Every structure is written in structure tokens, then in C-alpha cells.
User: Fold these one by one.
Assistant:
Number 1:
Amino acid sequence: MFKKILGTGLTRVLNLLIGFATMLMGTKVLGAAEWGIGFTVLTDVTFLLIGVEFIVGGGLVYFTSRKPLSTLMKVSYGWIVLVMAFYVLAFWILSYFPDLSDSIVPRGYEWITLLLTFVYSFHNFNLNILLGKEKVGTYNWVFLLQILVQVGTMALLIFVFHLKDARAFVYSLLCGYVVALLAGLTQVLPMLNRGESKPILATAKEMLAYNSVIVLTSLVSILNRRLSVFMLRQKYTDNDKEVGVYGTGTQVGEAVKVFGVSIAMVQFSHLSNLKDKDEAVNLTIKFLKISVILTFIALLVLACLPVSFFEWIFSKEFGQVKQIILLMAPGMLFYSAHSIFTHYFSGTGVPKYNLFASLVGLGVTLPCTLTMIPHWGIFGAAASFSATFLAIMLYQWFVFRRIAGVRAKNLLLTKEDWTWCKEEFYAIFAKNKN
């Protein structure tokens, strides 16, 4: 299992390095305003994907071991087309209200935003199928291919074709999604057994019933993390610079998610195929400890970097990034625990608790963003993030404690934990020797 975590972790570290290269090009060459537009487009795509994920979301991982792939593909592809048709109609109607449209999607980027959502939906289907089949290694290289193509295309557009605005970032996203989609298909299609089938309508209803809770959770979770972006766009009308600075700060701060996300991804894939509830609880506690410790160390390193470092890396426009990171640091630590709890509830078939946790977070997000951002701008947005995930993490801990029958003392490091970690590492090296 550690081998999968290490493989996923290394992929995510490479993602961070490539994302860092992308940020360097975006901040130094495009500038804060254009980088802010690109960050807003990416946020819009994230919101639009919510509709698709009622069928093609994380719940698909759960159904991969329970339904024929041919049936899942028919249901998922049909749903993507249906949702995208609705989005096209919605954007066409929105075009008659330009002021409202501009507050949601940057002007001139409406249709490319839809295209990005459409392509990523099919790419996301492939990724979830690979994860559900516990093909974590294949999942990692497809994901890595996506980000490599993205950064390569962006560099080509900027330095060869001299495209030095937000389009360089947005077009690079599209290229990355398309190439990764095609690569993913080469891995998924051979798994297809055309002889197997289940009733499509019944399967769709079952998936909607299960996924609806997960998707509503994702929607509220995204609101918790990204509502501040839209609030900032309202505060700094016709000025995307502040959004660009805040976006850079959040991307650097959220880089520490690499530990929690890598561990939680393997955890979810494993728990979705696991029947032993006690083993699920024990693994979750072990993963929780590892995730929080590694995240804390990474945050400590970030906190020690001086303001001058960020100004040197990104340019003078981004001197406030350090303050944003410091304000978000507690929230990122809480987020690392939140990721582990979330994947425990989803992997064991009780995703409703994630929805309740997200609603608790939204109850904190709304008053915080409405009061903090008007007064403190990007710093209020960062502080709101930390307050939100403190509330979410506390709720999830209390529920997990009740369901799993554990206590706070179970979170302390023990000799058994160290022994388990050593055995897992030794197992990796033993397999490599063989």
C-alpha cells in the first residue's frame, strides 16, 4: 500500500513542481491581472463539473467494482452530453445579461470554459475508472501526462508564439485535458467487456442516488474553498490583479495538500474494495497521523520563507503572498485531516456525513466572507478559509469518533505505528529486490 502512496505522492510532487513552473510563467510573464483571469476560468470549470459529477464523480470509483464497465460508460457518456447541452443553453441565455455574465465568467472566455468542462468530464471518467480498478500507477501516469502537456504547451505559446495573456494558460489546460483523455482511453477501453450489461436506467438511478450526496458535498466544499474568489471579483471590480495575487497565494499554500490528497486517494481506492470495518478504521487512523505530520512539516518550511523570496520568485506584485500563506496555514492543516475523514466516509458507504460537514463549513464560510472580505480583502479571504476548515474538521472528527468507537488518545503516535511504517517500507524494498 505504501508503494501506491509513494507513487501517488511522487506524481503529486511532480505536479507541484510543474504547477510552480506554470505559476512562474503566469506571474512573471502574464502579470497579476491576466493570471487572475486564468485562475477564474479554472474556478468556473471546477464549478461546472459539479453537474457532471452527479454521475461521473468520485462515486464512480465505488461502482467500478460493482457494475459492468460497459454500463457505467453508457450512463456516464449520456449524462455528460445531457449536462453540457443544459450548460450551452444556460450560457446562451446568460449572454443577454452581460453584466451578470462578466461577474461569473471573464468576458471572451465563455465558450472555451464550456469546452474545457466537456473534455475534462470524459477525462475524469477515465481517471475514476482507473482508481476504482485500483490501477493507481496507471492513474498517476495519465495524470502526470496531463500536467506535463499543460506546462509544455503554455511555455510554447508564451515563448514561441508570444501569446502573453490569459489565453496561454487556458489553451494549455485544453491541450493537457485532450492528450490525457486520449491516453486514458487507451487504458480503459481494453477493460471493456461488451458481453456484460445492466439496465441503464436502473443503474443511472442507483448512481444518482449514491452520487447526489457526494456531489452536493463537492458543491458545498467548492463554495467553501472558492466562494472568496467571486467575492473578491465583486470587491475589486474591473481589477483582476487582487484575484491573481490571492490565487497565487492559495496555490502555493495548497501545495501542502500533496500529502493528504495522495494518502486519501489510495485510502479511498482501498476502502471501496474492503469489507472489514475494523481494518478500515485502523488504516484511517494511521493515514490521519501520517497526513497531519507531513503537512505540518511542509507548512513550517513555507512559513520560514521570507517575503523577499516570494517577490523574487513571482515579482514585486506578489509580495502579499506570504501573508496569505500564513493565514491559510491552519486551514491547510485542518484540510489534511478533513481529506482522510472524507475518504473514510465515502469509501465505507456513508458519504452523507461529508455533506453535513460541508454544510457546517458553509455556515462558517458565508458570514466570514461577507464580513471579512469587504474589510480585509484577500487577507479576509485567507482567514475565512482557515475558520471554515476548522469547523469542518471538528465535525468530522466527532462523527468518526462516534461511528468508529475511537478516542482522542488513539490519535497519539505509538510504537505500533512506527513498526507498521517500517514494515511497509521494508516491503517496498523487498519487492523491488525481487
Number 2:
Amino acid sequence: MIPLPNLRLGSLSIGFPVVQAALSGYSDWPMRVIARRHGASYAICEVMLDQFLVAIKDNRKRNQHFLRISDDERPVGGQLMGAEPEQFAAGAQKLVQAGFDVIDINFGCPVKKVLGRCRGGFHLSQPDVALEIVRRTRDAVPADIPVTVKMRRGLDDTPASRERFFTILDGAFAADVAAITVHGRTVEQRYIGPSRWEFLTEVKRHTGPERTILGSGDLFTAQSCLDMLAQTGVDGVTVARGAIGNPWIFAQCRSLAAGQPLPPPPTLWEQRDVMLEHFGLAQQLYGDDRAGPLMRKFGIKYAALHPQHLLVREAFTKVRCLDDWRAALAQWYAEDLAGCYPDPAIHRVGDCEEAA
């Protein structure tokens, strides 16, 4: 066993170097709290548009879905996406005012509608604009608040795209960002094909030990998280789709890193208790009427840990309210049977519009 070094983002100590990534439509306050309670040392909120943040009024009830933070999840990162450097900086200031401990810049989202509006991964095609966003954001944010960047390995696999990637990477560190997360796929790939971990190795060798690099891509098991750390030399890893409906992955990582055997998957009653806890947090955030429909997608993901996951998944597609949620749990989680580890192939199907 080789002890893992503690992850730091600038002056902020994160600790265990396996964290929860930002996930559009998923990593809201309930998901982040559940992840933290199960061993994640840090989590990032779902991505927010700079235009939205600049335009909203200080109405806590209306905006709590995006801006809700609680002390038990600190430190917590706020991820920002946009097109214009000036508006990006103004959005970052809004996240600081809301209390986020880290500001994360999204240059990685591969969703077509995002790219079409010159946001997310589109910025990898224009280093000058990307670095202007980084500089303005860093200047707009107090010095004690770390600024980080999320990138993919390029827009595509052309030499020009590779050159632009390293221009942005080096320029962002020169502008005093605290860390950069690199996803091993290109924007053009979206989620098709394997994440290229060898590129993460190259990036870490390029930046050296004085720069903080986090890796992302194809982290669906606890062992894969530790494998990425060992094989690439990155300073930390961000678990994205592999954490949806599976917060236990963080505790499993900690056990393996401590030289202990992989813990068994949570039993059905252990799963049931966490699923009820998650629904209760969603009720606090969204209210009774909205919580049910919004939790449906989480139930579908939790179902992957059930030995009859296809039938359980179908049951959660029909959830509309807490009574439906309880009924699905009563039907499929009544007996405390052994759970199962989710099949990574299940997570690779579909596109959850990951913003991490």
C-alpha cells in the first residue's frame, strides 16, 4: 500500500484525493450532501450559466436549487459556464457571494447545444478567449478563493487541437489557477470510446509536481479511481457518472487506499435507507411537489445496485411523488438481500450531459 497524498486546491486542503465531479442536472445539494456523508472529500455543484447568475435577483426561495450550500458539505465548488469573459467574471462574483469555496471554469462540456452557443468545450478551439475568461475570473475572485478549470484533452485529435490544449493549460496556470481537471476524451468524442488515461500521464509530466492536475473519465469503480491515480500520477480524480446512485464508491475508495479489502456492495436495506435520506433532502430543497419527478432519475441510477436492476429501474421510471418512491422501495427492498456492484457498462449507456 502506497499512502495517497492529500489533495490541495491552492491554500485549501481537500484531503483524500477522490472527489465528486460536477454533473449537469445531478450534482445538486442533496447529491453532494449524500456523497460527502459517504466519503467524498469535496464536491462541485451542477454547472451554472453566467447569464443566469448575473440576471437573478436575491430571492433565496427561487434560487435555492442552484445556490443552496450547507456547512456539512464544505468545501464546495461552484462550476461556471459561459461565452463572454466579462459576463463570466460577473457570474464568478455571484458564486463567491453565494458562499462557494472554489470557482470552477467549465471548458469541457461536449453537449451540442452548449457548443452551439460557444460555451463549454467550444472554448478549447479559441485559446485567446479561454485565457481571457480565466484571467478575468481570477481577477474578479478574492485571492483566497481558488479558481480551477475543467478541460477535455482537446476539441478533436488533430495536432492543432493538441497545441491549443497545451496553450490553454499553460496559460491558465500562468494566470494562477489552483488546479486543472483533464478528461481523457475529446469534445468530439462526447462519451464514445474509452477515456485516454495515457494523455493524463503526459499532462502530469508536462506540468510537473508543482502543478495540481486531476483526472476524469471512465471512473465507475473504486479500483478504477485508484488505478488512475497510480497509472497516471495525477494529484486527484473526479468521479462523475460513476457516483450517480452510487455514493458508496467514495468509502470503497478509502478502504482500498488503506490496504483493506473492497467492502461488499451495500445491502438492499442499506440502499433503501440512503434512498429515503436522499429523497428527504430533495423535499427540503424542492418541496413535495417537485421532489418526486426530480428524484426519478436518481432512482433509475440507484437501481443499478439491485440484483434485479432492470425491473427495479422500470419501477422508478413511474415515480411521481414520495408515495410512489416508498411503494417502489416496499416492493423491491423489503428483504435485506445482498446488493451488487453496478455494471460499468450500464453507466456508459446514454448521455447525462456531464458538465464535469
Number 3:
Amino acid sequence: MEQYIKKIYEKITANPEAFLIPATKVAGIFLAAILLWWCFNLVLRRIRRRLEHRPFFERNDYMFPLIKKAGHYTILIVAAARLLDLFRAPLLEKLFYAALVIFMASFVQSFLKHLVPWLERTLASKTETKVDNVILDLFKSFSGVIIYGTASVFALDLLGLNVMPLVAGAGVAGLAIGFAAKDTLSNLIAGVLLIIDRPFEVGDRIEVWSAPTNSATWGDVIDIGLRATKIRTTDNIVIVIPNNEIMRRDIINYTAITSHIRVRIGIGIAYEADVRRAKDAIVRIALELDWVMRDPAPKVVVKSFGESAVNLEARVWIKEPRRRIDTISQITDRVKEVFQKEGIEIPYPKRDIFIKREEIVPRPATQ
């Protein structure tokens, strides 16, 4: 160690100007960096005192710390670049600029972490469409991968490494993964389309075609994810349906336009019964329910003529789609009671059997 220090001392004493000029330049770079640092803090402090009470900066209190960090990093980067130019070290320059690219990617990602929530508060929350929400969610999820992946490619290129084989290999691997996970990707795409097209929203009541046997066939949407949609049926069973399957089906939404829906109830009466009297009785029964609408009023029509009955159909508008089954059940129960009380026959299949008797005439005996 002593010998190494002695050699350096000998070189300096032999040619002091060769070491004095670089040392002066290094000291000047450090002094300039310190001066810029102090001036920047002073100016930013004064600007902050004037603007920090304004509504924008009160809502976004991270702005000034972010600006301060960006200014400090800029001063350090400029100072480091000047020092590298001074020493003429190509390898160090490559390492420095590669690290600088990764560092800038980190700074951009940090900035986006604050920018996306601000866009959600100021833009997405004020629009009726869900397209912007979907775009922001996807950007929030994949921005880090995109930013750091791109920065890594540029950093390797600055270091002199050929990244094209890696990019080509990543493309082939991505293609293979895409084929292997085609169902998952299909569900993700279908989920984005569902959120954009909005055939239903959270809280809507829709028909469920894949419900278990002997269970409710409709329910309320409780979650719309990128991969699957969750529906809670009226039996309190949660059914998770892949979005790709939903996009291939007819979607029956009972609450998309309005909460008012019409319920049809089939009722049969005997051919001998008074049709007008039966219609009036059914209308009275429907109006007993407080969720049945008065305007438009319940209506009963003759639907068809069956083998043993005149088939009527009650058409009733209700205010609450979730009471559709209650409406059918209660009106049917009351029709049975009222028809029995008023003597209106509810028919059942009948068959009339006619027995025909023929007299047997004896044949004359043959000779």
C-alpha cells in the first residue's frame, strides 16, 4: 500500500500540471452541482409557499416532492455525465447510461402511479362510459412491465449486447404461451368487451342458463371481472361464468332499461265458464298486489282454445323485477281461491266414452 501511494506521489511531483488541471475541473463540477442544488431548493421553496394553498396542489400534495426529486436527480445526472467526459472511460460511460435508462424508467413508473389515480378522479369518474375505466385499469396493471421491459432492451443495447435474438425468442415464447392460454386470453378479451359494451352492469338481474338443476334460473350480477362474471341467484348461490361463454349466449337482462317489467301468467277456464267474469276476477286479483302497476293496468286476453279449456293469459306490469316469481305465485294462488268461490270452473282433461251395443242376429242354419 505504501509503495502504491509512493508511486502516485512520484507521478504528481514529476508532472504536477497533469493532475492539477483534472483535479480543478472535478472540484469545479462538484462546486457547480452544490450551487445548482442550493439555488434549485431556494427557488422551489419560494414557489411552493406561493402555490401550495391552491386547490390543485392541496388535492395533489405529492407534486412538489416529485418536482424536487426530479430536480435533484437531474443535477446529479448532469454532474456525473460531466465527470465521465472528464475521465474518458468508455466502459464506465456505457454502464452509466445503461443505469440511467433503468433509473428513468423507475422515475416514469413513479410518476404514473400518481397520474393514473388523478385521471380516475378527474376524468373517469365524470363519464358514463366504462371504456376509460377499463383502459386505465389495464394501463395500471401492465404499465410497469411495458416500461421496465422497454428500458431493459435499451440498456442492454447501450452496453453493446445484441438483444434481437432475445426479442425473437420472447416473441416465439409469447406465441407458444398464447396458444397454451388461449381460453384465458379469450376470457380476458371477452371481459374487456363486456365492460365496454355493457350488456349488463353490477346489480342488474339477468337470466342464468347454466344454473344447477332444480335451482333458480336468474340472479343479480355481483361482479364483472376480466376473466369471469359472478352472478348470485335468488337461491343465494353464486355462479361464476367465464366471460367467453357469456359473449356466445343471448343475454336476457330484466333491469337494463327500466325497473318495470311485464309478467305473463297462463290460466285456463272451462268452455262453459263466463269468460268476461273470469277476466274481471283476474284483474281484481292482480290489483291486490301493491307492486303491480295501475298504469298500464293489468290485462287479460284469450290466448288460445285448448282441448278442454279456454286458455287465458294475464299480462301484468310490475314495479320490481325481483318480484316476478312472487307475482306469478300469488296471483295463481288467489285465482284458485276466487274461482272456487265464484263458481268459475278450472278444467282438467276429460274424455267422453260412448259404448255402442249391437244385437247379434243368428245366421240361418245351412242345409
